[in-house]
Amino acid sequence: MTDTTKSATLTIGDKTYELPIYSPTAGPDVVDIRKLYGTAGVFTYDPGFTSTASCDSTITFIDGDKGILLHRGYPIDQLAEKSHYLEVCYLLMNGELPDAAALEDFETRITRHTMVHEQMHNFFRGFRRDAHPMATMVGVVGAMSAFYHDSTDINDEWQREVAAMRLIAKVPTIAAMAYKYSIGQPFVYPRNDLDYASNFLHMCFSVPAEEYHVDPILSRAMDRIFTLHADHEQNASTSTVRLASSSGANPFACIAAGIACLWGPAHGGANQACLEMLKEIGTPDRIPEFIGRAKDKNDPFRLMGFGHRVYKNFDPRATVMKQSADEVLDLLGIEDNPILQVAKELERQALEDPYFADKKLFPNVDFYSGIILEAMGFPTSMFTPIFAVSRTVGWVSQWKEMIADPQNKIGRPRQLYLGETQRDYVDIEKR
Ligand code: SDX
């Protein structure tokens, strides 16, 4: 916490209260209200936490007005162009870019943890084949706590490190197994001679009947998608992981909670919902109809992949993703992909419409990612699992930071109670 002599004065009735103000290294100042209830007897009120800082952090910084996203100070567009996912994982987990020896050691350790306990295969058999892969992932990742007992003591720094490495290494294997199970194909074991992204593609698309060769174009695109989704400050699923972890729950259960939260269409589920929306629109001539629905207060329909709680400018990840969509489709020889044409025309028309401009609604990370993933051969049901694979490093990095924070205590918000005041029980014959 940066020390400061600044403070805010709050007047309630005939009393005034001095609240300390802390200044960050970047972004808005914060007003410390921790003593407010004890001194003034009032709560603050912020449903959805639109103006609330829940913690200190040094991992990711977002400037929503300027469309800036930094991971440990490095801009996301530079990391997407010059780095790769496991190097970004090291950066998020450790705070600095690794030297060559540290990177090789990190990548070797992750590679050596990609296989799951053989008995975990049995969990999948309990699910229907048509279960959504996110349902399977919530169940199987949570069940990791039933296998890896030697990395569940959160008070042991070494066990925290092992749990983090196991999660980063094994969640892609579990996601690939969920996909294989959903299409009735046999599980594919991870290979130690493949890089992280290539291994994931191999586990998803390889079949026993023939040799699977990873296309370097797809591998690069996969790695870039992983990099672009790795962490994003205190978003809903990361806040879920932090809140679950604040009770002292084991890391596998907490990451399973994060996966459950990410599933929602307002959050990570938007990539699947967005592609389904683009397909429903189908052709550019139907775009005005859907823009009209998105603007209609009486219609619950929203443009999926548009808008963001923090970004009131372009989501920098969407900019990179849009460039990547053009490159990947071009390299795959997918000319004039009709869905990409609809997406680009929808973006153009929406950004020219005062409704979206006035509300500062821009494309977010989910607007273009589905187009790339579908071109790579993934069904829409695998879009959010892939987001979960990538975001696991963000969740575990934020979890490690929180556990190590001496201010860490159980999260326990209060409420504005609007229910009945105390009343006596009424016997049923008198109701
Ligand atoms: C992710 O937080 C993160 O960092 C998340 C994420 C990450 O990396 O972890 O970036 C990933 O979740 C990206 C967001 C993916 N979700 C979608 O694309 C779903 C569509 N978007 C919306 O549901 C919405 O924009 C949210 C949920 C993303 C943000 O909602 P907010 O901040 O709560 O804003 P709001 O719902 O209060 O909307 C403000 C206004 C409202 O109109 P008014 O009531 O003021 O008249 O804008 C309107 C909304 O109706 N609005 C939209 C809209 N998004 C907001 N109108 C039409 N289409 C939309 N997409």
TrEMBL record:
Pfam families per the UniProt record, alphabetical: Citrate_synt
CDD domains in alphabetical order: EcCS_like
Catalytic reaction(s) noted: oxaloacetate + acetyl-CoA + H2O = citrate + CoA + H(+)
A biological-process GO annotation: tricarboxylic acid cycle
MF GO annotations: citrate synthase activity
InterPro entries for this protein: Citrate_synth-like_lrg_a-sub (IPR016142), Citrate_synth-like_sm_a-sub (IPR016143), Citrate_synthase (IPR002020), Citrate_synthase_AS (IPR019810), Citrate_synthase_bac-typ (IPR024176), Citrate_synthase_sf (IPR036969), Citrate_synthase_typ-I (IPR010953)
CC per GO annotation: cytoplasm
Catalytic residues, chain numbering: H308, D366
Pathway assignment: Carbohydrate metabolism; tricarboxylic acid cycle; isocitrate from oxaloacetate: step 1/2
Keywords attached to this entry: Acyltransferase, Transferase, Tricarboxylic acid cycle
UniProt similarity note: Belongs to the citrate synthase family.
UniProt-recorded name of the protein: Citrate synthase
Organism: Sedimentitalea arenosa
